[in-house]
Amino acid sequence: MSLHLFNTLTRQVEPFAPLEPPRVTMYTCGPTVWNFAHIGNFRTFLFEDLLRRHLEWSGYDVFHIMNLTDVDDRVIKAAAAAGKRLAELTEPFVRAFFEDRDFLRIKPAHVYPRATQYMTAMITLVQRLLERGVAYRGEDGSVYLAIAKFPGYGRLSQLDRRQLKVGARVASDEYAKDDPRDFALWKKTDAVDEQVGAAWDAPFGRGRPGWHLECSAMSLAEIGERFGVQTLDLHCGAIDLIFPHHENEIAQSEAATGQPFARTWLHGAFLNVKGTKMSKRYGNFLTARDLQEQGVDAGTFRTLVYQTHYRQPLDYTDEALDAARKGSLRLGEFRERLENEDGRRRTGADAGDRLGDLARQLEADVRAALDDDLDSPNALARVFDFVRAANGELDRGAGGSGVAAALAVFDRVMGLFAVLPGGRQVAPELERWVHERLAARDRARKSKDFKEADRIRDELKARGVEIEDTPAGTRWRVV
RNA sequence: GGCGCCGUAGCCAAGUGGUAAGGCGGAGGUCUGCAAAACCUCUAUUCGUCGGUUCGAUUCCGACCGGCGCCUCCA
Q1: In a shared domain, residues A182 and A153
Q2: Using the CB atom, is residue A99 less than 7 Å from strand B?
Q3: Does residue A65 lie within any of the structural domains?
Q4: What is the mean pLDDT of residues A417-436?
């Protein structure tokens, strides 16, 4: 089976077919850099990371674009509140985002276009929409897109079958629009915008881009320049973006280019806390830095995330996190064991290369699971199956060439998930002390002074060092 | 009000029209000086409830109950 993905546009799992294989253009909606991203945001980025890695593993040549929204209502509000200019506010959060991304082992996108650096592209896009008569200047001086002029409007969110909530909201700009559902492409500047530097000159008036505009302008600019196309293969985000964000992106892009904006739309479910979405608004959020402070490593968090399918809500609890940590640790232990066995160049019988067979099966199983709409929980289940079976073979003395083969495959598969525990830095002085203590314990054990040996073990434990006696000597790690 | 999603063991969580993956936890065992790790066995006659379709439904349809999301900034 080849890769199949659930396309929000059709609400069906369908075969993935990029426009010009092996190239795949992938656009993922990035963070708004008015603050730190929270782990709910990162759940989405992690789902996209898995998609990216699986595409590359499958032989595709992926070009990954992630935007950074550095001008919008929240950014302006936060800048004004802090008495800063736009860039002054956003720059530290951009850096923080990249740090968090690296901490969570998320592969960097190929480009991170920022809204403020694509003003020309955005202005050109609005201009084009005005020329085509799809956009109009409202009475308030802002530019709106007339959704009545775009027949396909509502296809993604099935809006054609929905009605606006009665009396839901009457925005201040409502009177300026021809149709309440029209949305702003370009917002006329106000005093606060000027104060923080969120204002640009355009033929249709001084203003700033509407929220949706940047994604259309930047993705079209990136793929247009590079590949001469105006259709993305993949466009991803979380489900809250389906409407209005993605719906509006489609309208403004397709109205301008006459081409499909994206072939496949993927949307991830939320990370919840006690059943409610994690959100800045509810204050129930945790940042990647909070995780780091709590000693939660990337392998643990990634395990937690990938043990739930990306279209299923994931409820974040300490218990689930702890279970994920144990699972990640188990995988790490196994990896270490393989490496050690390989290092010892076991001459044990190949046993028909059972390990190699298991490894090949694992690779096929994982590929099949991920091909099935990125069924990572299933894929990880196969990994754990493999670990159990391989440990069993190792226990029974399997060795030979199969070990190296298994290690190679295991590393390849782990490369998709990156769920292994992070290596912890150990202070040289602690390391010296541990070695000295272990030597002392060895002497005690040799002379059958187990009381002393156990005392030393407790001593080590007290400083967070756990030990494990193996035929090859005593192993230790800091927990 | 409109559109959409979820409800599987103590917890987390896959999945299929043909009789329930995996992780964590728990019980017992093997190995070990003891631990730890690893391995073995066991841990859901049952998939929110009630109906319907079917030879057969957790899986399809309907109703209901419970939880949630979007429609307003949103990963």
Answers
A1: yes
A2: no
A3: yes
A4: 88
Do A93 and A188 fall into the same domain?
yes
Specify the 3-state DSSP secondary structure of A396: coil
Helices A86-103 & A73-82 angle (0-180, nearest 10):
110
Residue A179 lies in domain: 4-288
Nucleic acid strand B: bases within 7 A of protein CB: 1-6, 11-15, 21-25, 32-40, 67-75
Distance CA A124, CA A122 (A): 5
Q: Are residues A413 and A439 in the same domain?
A: no
Q: How far is the CA of A287 from the C1' of B50 (A)?
A: 44
CB of A74 lies under 7 Å from some atom of strand B = yes
The model's pLDDT over A73-123, given as tens digits with 9 standing for 90+, comes to 999 999 999 999 999 999 999 999 999 999 999 999 999 999 999 999 999
A333 CB less than 7 Å from any atom of strand B: yes
Residue A348 lies in a domain: yes
Q: Do A354 and A440 belong together in one domain?
A: no
Judge if A407 and A466 occupy the same domain. Answer: no
Same domain membership, residue A262 and residue A177: yes
Do the beta carbons of residue A353 and residue A409 sit within 8 Å?
Answer: no
Contact A414, A386 (CB under 8 A): no
Is nucleic acid strand B under 7 Å from A384's C-beta?
yes
Full DSSP string of A197-214: T--B--TT-SEEE-TTHH
Q: Is the CB of A321 under 7 A from strand B?
A: no
**Is there a domain that residue A306 lies in?**
no
Q: Which two tokens stand for residue A201?
A: 């000159």
Domain with A125 in it: what CATH number? Answer: 3.40.50.620
Please check whether residues A396 and A452 belong to one and the same domain: no
CA to C1' distance (Å), from A316 to B64: 29
For chain A, the domain total comes to: 3
Which ipTM was obtained for this model? 0.95
Distance between CA atoms of residues A283 and A269, nearest Å: 19
Residue A127 CA distance to nucleotide B20 C1' (Å): 58
pLDDT score for A259: 95
Q: Is residue A314 part of a domain?
A: no
User: Predicted confidence band at A286 (pLDDT cuts at 50, 70, 90)?
Assistant: very high
